[in-house]
Amino acid sequence: MHAVRYHGRGQVHVEQVDVPVPGDDEVLISLAFCGVCGSDVSEFEKGPLTAHIADVPHRVTGHTGPVTLGHEMSGYVVASPAGSGLPVGSLITSSGGVVCGECPQCMAGRPNLCRQYHVVGMHRDGGLAGYCTIPVRACVDTTPFGLSPSTAALAQPMAIALHALRRGDPPAGGRVAVVGAGGVGAFLVYGAAESGLDVLAIDVDEDRIALARRLGASSSSSAPAQGDAPFDVVYETSGTPQGLSTAVGLSGRGGRLVLVGIPAPGVGLDARDVALDELDVRGSVSLDPARDLPEALRVLATRTEGWADVAPTAFPLRDVAEEGLSRAAGRARIKTLFAPDLVEPCDTGRADALVVGRVRSR
């Protein structure tokens, strides 16, 4: 099969590799779609950061580099262990992160902080390939939700957004601000609005501001205006110095701020602002597979007009570096999807038809 292999900074190549063999607790899936996220871009530009491409085996997975990228995926089950609840032929999605379910954090209901936490596409081979093996506990059958394969591939970033939404614990019918309406921020805007919250979206890109309105923001702008505060919760998703400054300003005295974007080392809040304004600052990272992933599928299914404005185009694997790992190309789309079935780029609707047609012709 073909796979997008990461060898280090600026080194991504489509290579021929063997189809993986699933372990006793794993499913083998034939990939429909796989997305690229900001962490993949950072690896390409500045890595290796999180990706394990060393000759020394990874402490949990045993993987040695290079690694096949991709953790936002959908695919059809080809092989599955008995009793998994994931029948052959079913369309599944993955949390991307794999947890043990047994450590103190997992037992306390915070599996995203699991001691054995590892990521498909970073610490073991991922979904930018023809096939991928994933532990059963990191997968959900999408069949009950009636999603297209391309929409199912958006479940992981939506789950990240919904996890962040829960971390903020906004009151029912409350008012929230989302700073940064690209990537996870766009999904957070939709998830917040779908739950009945009044949402202000802030972004420097006018196209993303317009998208935020379509996703349910009651108001959106490139900069906060006088009178925009107070908010019950402010979510910062950009990870930029400008975004952090804006988020603190919107929080107001005694406000609650949830940090979702990952800033560069050395970029952070002024502790004086936190102390003097008694800010309630919370971090949010990853997701709870058992709780957030099924909820993400439910929320995705509520948008009757679909998600083509968020993920308009699907590309073949050969275009990953140019169309997925380039920040310039990424700014034109919220999410970029890739499909091993494709030989040329096309809109996601047509790509869905090609993928489904291939599955039905087996």
TrEMBL record:
<dbReference type="InterPro" id="IPR050129">
    <property type="entry name" value="Zn_alcohol_dh"/>
</dbReference>
<protein>
    <submittedName>
        <fullName>2,3-butanediol dehydrogenase</fullName>
    </submittedName>
</protein>
<dbReference type="InterPro" id="IPR011032">
    <property type="entry name" value="GroES-like_sf"/>
</dbReference>
<feature type="domain" description="Alcohol dehydrogenase-like C-terminal">
    <location>
        <begin position="183"/>
        <end position="301"/>
    </location>
</feature>
<dbReference type="Pfam" id="PF08240">
    <property type="entry name" value="ADH_N"/>
</dbReference>
<keyword id="KW-0560">Oxidoreductase</keyword>
<dbReference type="InterPro" id="IPR036291">
    <property type="entry name" value="NAD(P)-bd_dom_sf"/>
</dbReference>
<dbReference type="Pfam" id="PF00107">
    <property type="entry name" value="ADH_zinc_N"/>
</dbReference>
<dbReference type="InterPro" id="IPR013149">
    <property type="entry name" value="ADH-like_C"/>
</dbReference>
<dbReference type="InterPro" id="IPR013154">
    <property type="entry name" value="ADH-like_N"/>
</dbReference>
<feature type="domain" description="Alcohol dehydrogenase-like N-terminal">
    <location>
        <begin position="23"/>
        <end position="141"/>
    </location>
</feature>
